[in-house]
Write a structure and sequence with these properties.
Helix content: under 10%
Largest sheet: 7 strands, mixed
Low-confidence stretches: 1-7, 136-145
Order of helices and strands: EEEEEEEEEEEEEE
Oligomer: single chain
Structural class: mainly beta
Length: 165
């Protein structure tokens, strides 16, 4: 079906466009999401160079997604760089963690040998991870508190996993 615009001599159809989407960026952490204060945890994400393929104007088109920069955002305002990072949290609470990647894009049509760069970069965010730090943590809302069972007597050993000094 052709959709005609008011400009004389110009018309566009669904054959004049194609959408290309990067692979989903997935964030993960090296252990469970419940940590002790000061306990180090590693975070990983999966940015990768990859291709998208679709049809435009009756020809096969390819888009090449190349990661140029990646990093991490933490809800306490801190950041990390690279696909993998480690850190610890110094205060009890609930933290959100998210990875991001910026891609440089280029494209070509079937039969062409050279790639055409697209100006700018495309930045994609990952899934959000939630990290609970300390023996007391927030549940569904900030008004309700819960307790984390730990394997040590916190009054005798405040540095044990899950104990709040």
């Amino acid at each position: 079906e052709t959709i005609t615009f008011d400009s004389p001599g110009y018309f566009y159809s669904d054959r004049d466009q194609a959408e290309f989407f990067p692979n989903p960026l997935r964030a993960s952490m090296s252990q469970g999401n419940v940590l002790g204060i000061g306990q180090s945890v590693s975070f990983s994400s999966n940015p990768s160079s990859h291709y998208g393929v679709s049809q435009i104007l009756g020809k096969q088109a390819q888009v090449h997604f190349v990661p140029v920069l990646s990093g991490w955002s933490f809800s306490d305002g801190s950041t990390g760089t690279g696909a993998d990072t480690s850190r610890s949290f110094q205060a009890a609470g609930k933290y959100q963690v998210q990875a991001w990647v910026s891609y440089q894009l280029s494209y070509r049509l079937l039969g062409e040998t050279s790639w055409q760069k697209v100006a700018g970069e495309l930045t994609v965010d990952s899934n959000t991870l939630e990290v609970l730090v300390g023996a007391i943590y927030l549940k569904g809302d900030q008004a309700s508190q819960g307790a984390l069972l730990v394997g040590a007597d916190c009054s005798a050993r405040t540095d044990a996993f899950g104990c709040v000094p």
